[in-house]
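Re: the 127-residue chain
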Amino acid sequence: MANPNLLNQSNLTAKVTIGTLSNASLVSQNLVVAASSTLVTIRNLTMSTANSNLYFTTSNANVNIAIFDSSAGTTKFVQFDYNIPVKSTGYFASVTAPIYLEEGDALQANATFNLTVDYTCSYEVRS
């Protein structure tokens, strides 16, 4: 699916994934992976320094967001060392600035070592 034809897609499914980046160091977590014969459109990606227990971290967090391109076998940064202040939220993708993933590609992220960052990612899967 190197060049997907968006007009011939038969299914469009809206999805959301939530989670926590923690103790990630330099290892990235896959937030969303495009399955075989699909195209994923990232519509919204937010990251917050509050964890799921509603406690805020006591210091700023830095996050890295990258795309793994399966056809090239490389990873490229979308945001690098982006600072999210205490009790704040960072916005990385929106309806007006979507991120597309072809089959096998992955949206990845990691956070500052020993800090927790919650994320919410809304996306569409076309197949």
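The mean pLDDT is 84.
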